[in-house]
Structure formats: structure tokens, C-alpha cells
């Protein structure tokens, strides 16, 4: 499905209970691309992930944000009547720094095959310094009746 | 009421489980601790209105990845030696094998290696029929005496 109107997408995404619980905020969506921000939610994971930075968001929230970002990036490449979203197949995240504040998660579809999409995931701080690098694979299946 | 302290090796399992179950993140995601023993943690995620947001009415994939990461952290906290500190996740990899559609989803985490980097294997399966939903491996940094040595 093509990228939805941004404001409508932000409102719908931010209202999801999972995203509210973890501090995930939708920022941008375009063909093959999404960006989210992870903000600190009081009491969500303070200190229990090993990160001693008092304002740092937790890796637990970033993990969910990475999957959210890659799924929604893939969704912009799916055509109704031709493809059906079929679930994340693999995801990997490697941290190179601890988050000291909020985190910005971007996902870019780098390959879109008939049955699999590959997505590059980047996690950065507000200055663009890298926090983590990731990659995800997402499964797609033909819609019922659609030619293979 | 005295605030529960972050569990360390030697914390009685019931006390450690009470600490984790009281965390807002655990409550939001419907996660409870069932087993905590040396090198092993068993957690349960009960299906709720927050974690069900995946394809085909399944548990959300991101929530499952976070579930695996949490299980790994709790597992490591049962074995960290005196003077060492869990300093955060370094790497997380997860393969999604089948949709998690059960009322209860179980994560079993077991330590594979303890060193400067600690590695944990996590299996996530259906609580009723044992069907394997995901397999993950989580690597965490361990800090000793103020340095990631």
C-alpha cells in the first residue's frame, strides 16, 4: 500500500497501545522508508537494561521500534490485490554505543523481491551519531488469486 | 513498603521474580517470571491488548524480540559474578519461525557463554502445544570494576 498521509499515519501509529507503552513516536513515512523516535517513558525500563545514562531510552524499546520501522517501511511497497504482508522473518541489531537520550530509528527497504524484502535499520541519536546498525528480512506472499 | 532491589546472583528467586513482575514494562507487555535459576530464566507473556499487534492476530514481532531480550537479561543476572555489571545489549538476532498466537507464549533463556561478552540462547514457544515460534541469540557486555574488560 502506498505511504499514507503522514499526519493520519502518525496519529494512528502513536495511538497503538504497544507504541504508547514503549515511547515509540512516528515521524516520517515514504515509499520504502520510515522514521520513528524512541522517547523515554517514565518507569518503562529505567536502569533495568544496564544502561546507566539517566536520560537514555532502553534497548528494550529500541528493539520493538526496529521491528515496527522495518515492517511499516515494507508495507509502503505492498500493493493491495497483489501482495500480502506475511511477517518478519529475521531481524538483527548490533549496538555500537549506549543511548544517552532519545533514539531515532530509520528503516529503508534495500531489496524488494517477490517473496522477501530486505530492510536496512539505523538507530542514531539526535546529532546523527550511530547507536546501532540492523537488518531485517520480511516475508511477503501473493494475494489469493494473484499471479506468482 | 521497601522498594525491591535490582536482582543480583544470590537474590532469592521469589524476590527477584517479584521485582521483575512489578516493572511497568513487564506489566504492559503481559510478562511474568516463572523460573529463575543459575544460568536459566523462564518467562511467560500472556496475550493482551498491548502485545497483540502482529499479522494474523499474533503477538507483535517487535514485542517478541523485546521479550527475548528481557529473558536474556534476566538470565544473565542469575550468573554475573561479584564486581561485574551487565552493561547492556551488544547484539540481538532473532528468527521468526511461526506466528505466536497462543494465549501464553513462553521464553526460555539459557546462558551459552560468560566472558567480556555474555551470550544467551532464547527459545520462544507456544505455552500450550510447545510449537517453536522464534529462536534468538542475545549478546550483552559485562563490565568489571568500571571497565568493559
Distance between the termini of chain B: 38 Å
User: Structural class, judged by helices and strands of chain B?
Assistant: alpha+beta
- Assembly type of the shown chains? heterodimer
How is the main sheet of chain A built?
6 strands, antiparallel
Radius of gyration of chain B: 15 Å
Task: Give the topology string of chain A: H per helix, E per strand.
Answer: HHEEHEEEE
- Estimate the strand proportion of chain A: 35-45%
Query: What is the strand content of chain B?
Result: 35-45%
Number of helices of chain B: 3
- Return the CATH topology of chain B: Thiol Ester Dehydrase, Chain A
CATH class of chain B: Alpha Beta
Could you estimate the helical fraction of the residues of chain A in percent?
10-25%
The order of strands across the largest sheet of chain B is: 1-2-4-5-6-3
Count of beta strands of chain B: 6
Total tally of structural domains of chain A: 1
Biggest interface, chains and residues, is:
A-B, 37 and 38 residues
Determine the CATH superfamily of chain A: Hotdog Thioesterase
- Secondary-structure element string of chain B: HHEEHEEEE
Shape of chain B: globular
Q: How many angstroms separate the termini of chain A?
A: 18 Å
The CATH architecture of chain B is: Roll
Task: Describe the protein.
The complex is a heterodimer of chains A (148) and B (149). Chain A is of the alpha+beta class. Helix content of chain A is 22%, strand content 39%. Chain A has 3 helices and 6 strands. Chain A has helices at 6-14, 17-22, 59-75; strands at 24-30, 33-38, 83-95, 103-112, 116-124, 130-142. The longest helix of chain A has 17 residues, at 59-75. In chain B, 43% of the residues are buried. Chain A binds chain B through residues 16-18, 21-22, 41, 43-45, 47-51, 58-61, 63-68, 71, 85-95, 98, and chain B through 6, 23-25, 28-29, 49-51, 53-56, 58, 60-63, 65-66, 69-70, 73, 85-96, 99, 140-141. Strand 3 of chain A pairs antiparallel with strand 3 of chain B.
Amino acid at each position: 500500500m502506498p505511504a499514507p498521509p503522514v499526519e493520519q499515519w502518525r496519529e494512528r501509529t502513536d495511538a497503538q497501545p504497544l507504541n504508547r507503552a514503549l515511547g515509540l513516536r512516528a515521524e516520517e513515512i515514504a515509499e520504502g522508508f520510515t522514521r520513528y523516535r524512541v522517547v523515554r517513558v517514565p518507569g518503562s525500563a529505567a536502569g533495568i537494561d544496564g544502561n546507566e545514562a539517566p536520560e537514555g531510552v532502553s534497548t528494550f524499546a529500541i528493539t520493538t521500534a526496529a521491528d515496527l520501522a522495518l515492517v511499516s517501511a515494507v508495507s509502503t511497497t505492498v500493493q493491495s490485490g497483489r501482495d500480502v504482508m506475511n511477517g518478519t522473518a529475521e531481524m538483527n541489531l548490533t549496538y555500537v554505543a549506549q543511548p544517552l537520550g532519545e533514539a531515532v530509528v530509520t528503516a529503508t527497504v534495500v531489496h524488494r523481491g517477490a517473496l522477501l524484502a530486505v530492510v536496512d535499520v539505523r538507530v542514531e541519536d539526535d546529532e546523527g551519531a550511530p547507536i546501532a546498525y540492523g537488518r531485517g528480512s520480511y516475508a511477503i506472499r501473493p494475494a489469493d488469486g494473484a499471479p506468482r | 513498603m521497601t522498594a525491591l532491589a535490582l536482582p543480583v546472583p544470590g537474590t532469592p528467586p521469589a524476590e527477584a521474580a517479584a521485582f521483575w513482575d512489578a516493572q511497568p514494562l513487564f506489566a504492559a507487555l503481559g510478562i511474568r517470571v516463572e523460573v529463575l535459576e543459575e544460568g536459566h530464566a523462564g518467562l511467560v507473556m500472556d496475550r493482551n491488548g498491548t502485545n497483540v499487534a502482529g499479522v494474523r492476530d499474533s503477538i507483535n514481532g517487535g514485542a517478541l524480540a523485546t521479550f527475548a531480550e528481557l529473558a536474556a537479561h534476566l538470565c544473565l543476572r542469575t550468573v554475573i559474578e561479584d564486581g561485574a555489571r551487565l552493561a547492556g545489549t551488544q547484539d540481538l538476532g532473532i528468527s521468526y519461525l511461526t506466528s505466536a498466537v497462543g494465549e501464553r507464549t513462553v521464553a526460555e533463556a539459557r546462558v551459552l557463554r560468560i566472558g567480556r561478552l555474555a551470550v544467551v540462547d532464547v527459545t520462544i514457544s507456544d505455552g500450550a502445544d510447545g510449537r517453536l515460534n522464534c529462536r534468538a541469540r542475545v549478546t550483552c557486555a559485562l563490565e568489571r570494576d568500571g571497565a568493559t574488560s
